[in-house]
Specification:
With about 120 residues, the protein is of the alpha/beta class. It has helices at about 60, 80-90, 100-110, and strands spanning about 15-20, 20-25, 30, 35, 40-45, 70, 95-100, 115-120. Residues about 1-5 have low confidence and may be disordered.
Length: about 120
């Protein structure tokens, strides 16, 4: 049998699980929406995709070394508005949006590959 489960790098903030209203990240429960970096988790005061703006993502844009931002849009995927995409691109960061469950899985895979990734996750 071949194990294709990504290895979880020690000391990094991998997403262990999620349920409506919370995430378990690196063994700790975080209620509500969060932004996950490889080295930390911050509360994110966003409850709907319409609330996502360059201002609500200022922590990501101010963090040196982030190359890719995943946005977990909630239960359903949503398109990224042009102005938001341009602001993130101007900060030198790639951006992709997908439903929150897919963003959690993708973040963990990229983290296991030692990619410079962050995930802004709207709680389900």
């Amino acid at each position: 049998m071949i194990d294709i489960t990504p290895q979880r790098p020690a000391g990094l903030h991998a997403i262990d699980s999620y349920q409506p209203g919370w995430f378990r990240i690196a063994g700790q429960v975080h209620e509500g929406s969060v932004i996950v970096f490889p080295d930390r988790v911050v509360a994110w005061p966003v409850t709907a995709f319409a609330d996502v703006t360059a201002d609500t993502l200022a922590d990501v844009m101010a963090t040196a070394g982030v190359e890719l931002l995943l946005i977990g849009t909630g239960a359903e995927p949503q398109p990224i508005p042009k102005a938001l995409r341009a602001a993130i691109k101007d900060a030198g960061i790639g951006i992709d949006a997908m439903a929150t469950p897919a963003a959690c899985r993708t973040y963990n895979i990229l983290l296991s590959e030692h990619r410079a990734v962050a995930a802004a996750l709207i709680a389900l």
